[in-house]
Amino acid sequence: MYCEFNSISYLELAKKLAEQLGTSTSSDPFSKEWIVVQNKETQQWVSFFVANEIGIAANLEFILPSELVWKLYRVLNQDIPKILPSDRNPIKWQLFEILLKEPEELVSLGLQIPESDEGKSALADQIADVFDLYQIFRPEMVNNWSNGRADTNHSSETWQQKLWTILGKYWKQKPGFPADRAKIFLELNQALNSGKFPVSQLPDQISIFGLSQWPNPFAMVLAGLSKHIYIYNYALKPFDVQENKRSNLYEEWGAPKRNSLGLLTRGENAKVSDLENEFTDPEIDIHSTHNARREVEVLKYSLLKMFDSNPELKANDVLIMVPDLEEYGHLLKAVFDFNEGEPGIPVSIPYSEINQEALVLSHLFEVLNSGFKVNRFFDLFELPSISESLGITHTESLKVRKWFNATNTHWGIKANESPYSLEGALNALFAGFTMQINRFETAYDLVPIPGSFNTEDVVLISKLSSFIQKTEYIKQQTQEEKSISKWLIETRNWVFSLIDVPTKLPPFFDNLIDQMELVSNQSSIPFEVYKNWLLNEFSTQNASSSGLANGVVVSTYIPYRNIPFKIKALLGFDEHSFPRKIHRPAFDLINKYPQPGDRITKEDDALLFLETILSTSEHLHISFVGQNKKSPKSVSMLVQQLLDADPDIPAITYHKLHKFDGDYVKDGNNYSLNNQDLYSKIRQEKKSDLFLDIGVKAESFARIDGDEFIEFFKHPAKYYLQHQLQITNPFDEPELEDRESFQLDGLTRFSINSAVEKAFHSSKSEEELFDYFVKNGDFSNTTISKNQFEHSFSATYNFLSEVGKYLDEDEQFLDLEFELGKFSFRSRMGNLFNDRLILWRNGKARAKDFIEFWIRHLLTQVEGMQAESLFICKGKNDVTEIHSLCHITDPETKLLTLFSEYEQAMNSIHKHPFFPETSFAYADLELKGGDGMSKAIKVWEGSEFTGGGEGQDFYTLLLWRSLNPFKGNEFKNTAMRIWEPFLEVLKSNKNG
């Protein structure tokens, strides 16, 4: 008998299921209750719910839809193996063998077979996928093929039928195996409908709970079963909602489920009952952010507010759904954790040994594919499973990164294949430890890293060496060709060699190896063919959810979509992620001739989104990365349809780039003590476009450190953000480079000039230094000629020789400590030679050089030094240029002016628009009678020839991005107050 209970509410269906299980009067008290569920996540939720409802959830056997047919068939034939030759993977590799060895007849039938092994493998994969679906959705069609009959008029059916016949011949060579799963379905259906099925071995009833949809063959099995036992179908009807603005849209999205229910053949005694269908749409808010991390930050603060407003809300009432667990998992863990000064939210991040294996191998394959680029290598080296196995801490990992930078390691594993290789880095490290030589010294073809190495460093180098040797061995193995079975065994050994695997590995590799035993006459294939297939297998096998735990549940979009939660969050929900873009092969006859119950991805995903909405009782949070300048995205088309259907849903919220932005949290409460300190300074009653509004009582900056004082005037925005707010540019840290420099660009030239400057007193010749730089990997002698280097060396040597004329004595140091007005100053100043300040720069003078020159000169004057100060640099055509500042009267007043500027800026930075280069350009031309403002704007904006101007600097952009710093007269006045005294003294010296 067939009994159907319909409801829009998963909870109502679960209550009815629990009630039915609680009143079950089975003839065998020890028999298990069969419950067919969508997935393992539903199984877990139903178990918890039933246990809470009736006090126990024992003796329940949960079955997935794809397993039901097999379970029933094994009642007919208990000897059927678990793995069949007609399973997807054995079909794929058997097809590959056929395409390699029997292509002629298939080509004559219209199948286009690629020439390469990679192409044949990809085609075999597509055909295997289609044949796998045929056995589930079109068993009658493939059985007709076996009997020599075609089913459609499509041109590709001829060669597909031929391929299926050839596969059948291989399967007949496997005694004890059924021909294929389509025949299994027909045998099962015949037994159910003919009365030959051993019904006594089945339970008295089977429950079908909450399936979204099913194919027609599944419906036929249910119809056959209902003739013998009770079938209770607890059917979710997401299209049966009360009349509201979204009704028509919900009706459209619910079509796949409606079609599935329409496939069921209900007998005369069938009973269909409608349960309570009360439903209230959840609150929905939609958020656009600049990146995935901001998505997670926005979600965290939204959840914290919900927890504050509803004390009964618990972490496990929340479900977070993401498109990619690998991308979002570590972000959720980092942001949701209990950070200093900020409450945390417990979250369970999905993880399994399969994920661990997949992560290691996918990164390893990236390293091999890249030719051992150093960044790819480090991505592998810094994986937690790798570093834990090696016993390497995060601090030690950073040290290795610095070593690679110092040795100019870019790519390659062997020293004979690349001068920038990993082996070259190891040789330099071991040489540095054993030789202990000075800088600019070489040993044979090595440039040992100078410095002192302790025992811990040697142990670290040894661990690094061992790991590099293992990856080198793996690279050698990939040059061979092996059968698919041997590749699987080899890869499993790689995992064992790289990480400390648990004593009991998941059976992933063992299952694949068992499947490959069913493939006849395996050919040897290149590693590239095998690699692409294995990566695809990992992507389909990885864990999809964290399970119900004591914390926020995390899942991909699919598993929990119809399970009830109070709060659900969809992250990364953009136009590219959902609905999924799946392109079916042109020869897919299911896609060409669809029938009710077929899986059409676009329609499936609309149904999944609908189920997500209907299973959320209070709040649905949707976010996407819509403001990334490089790759902006639109929100999912399904969300846009929802917004069009219901104008009452709030418009998309566009979030700021930084969580500490002054406009981000208007009430000053973002649950971070650190940020609250910042917001207490940012917040004003009157809204402002500024990044910072200082609305607190001015602080005293009367105690001044000399080095910090100079650092401020050289870059005020950077100094303020770093010292006052601890905000740093994430791109300031040096990155590992994957390739060597191919030309003597400005940065390379500067590096060489700096190195030559350091080696000026080392008595090294041009030839010796050139040899050193080549061996050290600073550049290649094939990309930078010796003449280019000699020109750079000669220019630097001549400049330093010119500077050396003024350095006739050892450098002196002056300890400064004095009071000036209300200010207390303290510093230690060097660059004094024979009681004279001498500064130099091996390049053209910049404004920040001049401001340091001016401040240090004023300090010498306050201390009573009478000699002029010199700044030596390069002018036009690299001609040495000397700027001098002579003795001035009343230096205290000029220095006191700068002290006051410093204090004013530190208390009200946005009211102090001083930018060294831009301000200097304005003041210099203005004093010469020109249009200073025009010149200032050019320096601020930059050009295609000079690159980004001063206004494009990270810190300046962050502090002034919403303002015009040139509005009003403050920029002009500040520039003149700071630069006019200096320029006047500089001019008087030139004229004198």
Walk me through the structure.
The chain has a seven-stranded parallel sheet with strand order 9-12-8-13-14-7-15. It has a six-stranded parallel sheet with strand order 3-2-4-5-1-6, with helices on both faces. A three-stranded mixed sheet has the order 16-18-17. With 992 residues, it is α/β, with parallel strands linked by helices. Strand 4 (205-209), helix 10 (216-225) and strand 5 form a beta-alpha-beta unit. Helix 1 (10-22) packs across helix 2 and helix 35 crosses helix 38 (970-991). The chain is built from 38 helices and 23 strands.
Structure described in brief:
It contains 38 helices and 23 strands.
Write the layout of secondary structure elements.
Elements: E1 2-7, H1 10-22, E2 33-36, H2 40-54, E3 60-63, H3 65-76, H4 88-101, H5 103-108, H6 117-137, H7 139-146, H8 157-172, H9 181-194, E4 205-209, H10 216-225, E5 230-236, H11 247-253, H12 255-263, E6 271-274, E7 283-289, H13 292-309, E8 318-322, H14 325-336, E9 347-348, H15 353-369, H16 374-381, H17 384-390, H18 394-406, H19 422-435, H20 455-477, E10 481-482, H21 484-498, H22 508-516, E11 525-526, H23 527-541, E12 552-556, E13 565-570, H24 589-592, H25 601-614, E14 616-625, H26 637-645, E15 653-654, H27 673-682, E16 703-705, H28 706-714, H29 716-724, H30 746-758, H31 766-775, H32 786-804, E17 812-820, E18 823-832, E19 838-844, H33 847-862, E20 869-874, E21 880-885, H34 891-907, H35 916-927, H36 932-941, E22 942-943, E23 947-948, H37 954-960, H38 970-991
Parallel strand pairs: 1-5, 1-6, 2-3, 2-4, 4-5, 7-14, 7-15, 8-12, 8-13, 9-12, 13-14, 16-18, 19-20
Antiparallel strand pairs: 10-11, 17-18, 20-21, 22-23
